[in-house]
Amino acid sequence: MNDTAIPYILVIIFCIIMSAYFSATETAFSSINKIRLKTLSEAGNKKASLALSLSENYDKLLSTILIGNNIVNIAVASIGTVLFVDLLGSIGATVSTVVITVVVLIFGEITPKSIAKDYPEKFAMFSSRIIKFFIILLTPLNFIFSAWKKLLSKVLRPDNEAKMSQEELLMIVDEVHQEGVIDNSQENLLRNAIEFSMLKAEDILTHRVDIEAVSIDAEKSEVAEKFTSTGYSRILVYDDNIDNVVGIIHQKDFYVGCGITNKSIREIMTPPLFIHKSELVKDLLKLLQKKKVHIAVVVDEYGGTMGLVSMEDILEELVGEIWDEHDEVIDDIKKLSNDSCMVNCSMSFDDFKKKLCIDAETDSVSVGGWIMDMLGKVPSEGDCFDFDNYHIIVAQTDSHRVTYAKIMKKNRKDNKDAVNEAL
After folding, report:
1. Beta strands 384-387; 390-398: pairing state
2. Which of 2, 24, 27, 342 has its Cα between 20 and 30 A from that of 308?
């Protein structure tokens, strides 16, 4: 090797280093966790602030990286060809193509990108000042490419109004949870908040068969007993039947001083708020706040009482179950053995699917509704069916609805013995 080859080799090495830098920077900025960078930036890390600022203008950043990477890669190929032709003669061009391609792939592309993928935030902060210099240096070329992009945008007319879907938001929450940025409780709260916007009143209501109510002609002793037995602070009042709700009694209006009020039920009850079953829960929350009430009566398309939604029901969709000293704690799923459990059929069907990993679809919001759909009839104790790898048995009914069901893994034992055990 003569002395004239040394400068060529040094330039090639420099170009490969720059190729590695540009490749790693591209991967780092496309993989960074902006939430993590923002946290570091707010803590006073100047490099994180610069990296975050550069990532906000990703088009100019990417344009600079691609221009720089192509310049150094073309330079490597050109100088390599000259070097190998000078050393090997006619076969130098072929040898140069093979050697330069392998070297650039290994040291200029694959290796740096792999490293940057594992440490995106660290490399982005390391390279931020250097790439900032190149962005300023290549401003004229960036301007040309920016104008070209605007021209293409006018011709192609991309959909700039496309919004992030709920599924994409949930995927982001799942990613930051897996990375340890948020814990389980924070993940559940964020998921509930995202899914909250799509919930309807019919999805969270207390069904009419579970409503505690009194007749407008009821004796005060009956009303007092209802407050005592339920522990509720508000009770619905109906005239003739539950489909004709006429008011709501508040406990503080019923009990005054040291005893029961002397006023009649008609005098102390407040008018109810009626909503349709398709009312969005987010809109209902605003309505309850505006009307300064805590309960809304849900009606169906025929005007009949379908159920009720309370402020507590809405808040529980965001933060989970809220228990007070009067609530009886009931486990929705009670484990009986390693391969069987008892399920409270008022449980949300979505929660049921998640906990038992069952892949099923239904228009019903509860497990009991799903079981009724699967049976295709009014359920009776002992009715059973198979679904996926489970054997489902109706264990208890009340007023033509399923209250409890036993879920068993199939092939555990003879189905007749399983039914007898469930009952």
Report:
1. antiparallel
2. 342
Q: How far apart are CA 73 and CA 211, in angstroms?
A: 74
End-to-end CA gap in the chain: 92
Q: Classify residue 224 as exposed, middle or buried by CB count within 10 Å of its CB (0-12, 13-18, 19+).
A: middle
From start to end of 203-361, where are the E strands?
A: 206-207, 213-215, 234-238, 245-250, 255-256, 259-260, 274-276, 295-299, 305-310, 333-337, 340-344
Single-letter amino acid code for the residue at 170: L
DSSP secondary structure, 91-111, as one string: GHHHHHHHHHHHHIIIIIIIH
Looking at 197-340, list the stretches that DSSP marks H as alpha helix, in order from N- to C-terminal side.
201-204, 220-230, 251-254, 265-268, 281-291, 311-319
3-state secondary structure of 264: coil
- At 416 the pLDDT is 44
CB-based contact 286:296 (threshold 8 Å): no
Give the tens place of pLDDT for each residue, 329-367.
567 888 888 888 999 888 888 888 888 888 888 877 788
- Give the C-alpha separation, 213 to 312, whole Å: 18
| The two three-digit tokens of residue 132, written as one number | 């900032």
Length of the chain: 423
What is the C-alpha separation between 166 and 174, in angstroms, rounded?
A: 12
Note the pLDDT tens digit of each residue in 6-32.
888 899 999 999 999 999 999 999 888
Q: What is the CA radius of gyration of the chain?
A: 34
Contacts of 176 (CB under 8 A, 6+ apart): 33, 35, 182
Other CB atoms within 10 Å distance of the CB of residue 275: 20
**pTM for this predicted structure:** 0.55
